[in-house]
Amino acid sequence: MLKLEHVTKYYGDFKAVDDLSFTVDDGEIFGLLGVNGAGKTTTFRMILNLLEATDGTITLNDEPINYSMSDEIGYLPEERSLLTKLTVYDQAIYFGALKGMTNKEIIARLDELLNKFEVTDYKYKKIKELSKGNQQKIQFIMAILNKPKLLILDEPFSGLDPLNIELFKKEIRELSSQGSMIIFSSHRMDHVELFCKKLVILKQGRAVISGELAKIKADYRKKNIRIRGNVDTKELAKIKYVEEVLSIGDEIMVKITSNKGIEPVFTYISKQSNITKFVVEEPTLDEIFMSVVGES
Question: Which domains, from first to last, does the chain contain?
Answer without folding.
Answer: 2-217 (3.40.50.300), 220-293 (3.30.70.980)
